[in-house]
Structures are given as structure tokens and as C-alpha cells.
Amino acid sequence: MEIFGLAVTLAGTALSLIGSWKLFRFRSDDPKFTQDGANLPGERTSTVVPNLIIAQRRPLGFACFGGAVTVVGGAIVAVAAITAL
Questions:
Q1: What is the mean pLDDT of residues 72-77?
Q2: Structural contact between residues 26 and 59, judged by C-beta atoms closer than 8 angstroms
Q3: Where in the chain does DSSP place strands (E)?
Q4: Interval 18-53: pLDDT, tens
Q5: SS3 26
Q6: CA distances from 48 to 9, 12, 29, 33, 81 (A)
Q7: Which of 9-13, 29-33, 57-61, 79-83 is the least confident region?
Q8: Distance between CA 17 and CA 40 in Å, rounded?
Q9: Could you give the CA distance from residue 49 to residue 41 in angstroms, rounded to a whole number?
Q10: Three-class DSSP category at 82
């Protein structure tokens, strides 16, 4: 049971690492993140912030889900250690 918990914890850590790496390599100098359409005639809404949120959703989800899986793996290891006493 401890080995299973360790495997779950390592998988969660790997998911967090993938999400963090994707966030680290994120390029915000893309024109869709810098050029604001609100300055153009007839445009009243900005699309910069929604584009940033949409583009960062998946890497942030990887990092958060990986953290949750890591916590679950740690709980499995803790329960296995307590029941082994």
C-alpha cells in the first residue's frame, strides 16, 4: 500500500511539474495578449485579459490537479503507515 501511495504521489508531482513548466514557458508577447481591441473605433471590450485567462487555464489546471493528486498520495501513505502499526 505504501508503494501505491508513493506511485500516486510521484504521478501528482510529475503533473505539477508539467503544469509549472508550461506556465514557465508561457509567452505573453503574442499579439493577441498585447494588442487591445478596445482602442479601435466601434470596439468597447478588451480581449487581452480573457485571452490570457483562457491560454493559462490548462497549465494551471495541470499544476493544481497534480498538487491534489500529491496530497491524495500522501494521505494514502499516511493511512498505510498508521494501519501497519
A1: 96
A2: yes
A3: none
A4: 999 998 888 878 777 777 766 667 767 777 888 888
A5: coil
A6: 36, 32, 11, 5, 49
A7: 29-33
A8: 40
A9: 19
A10: helix
CA–CA distance, 43 with 61 (Å, rounded to integer): 31
**Mean pLDDT score across all residues of the chain:** 88
- The residue behind cell 504521489 is 9
pLDDT score of 78: 95
| H/E element, 84 | none
* Cβ neighbours of 58 (radius 10 Å): 12
Residue 12 burial (CB < 10 Å; 0-12/13-18/19+)?
Answer: buried
**Closest to 8 measured CA to CA, from 71, 64, 80, 58:** 71
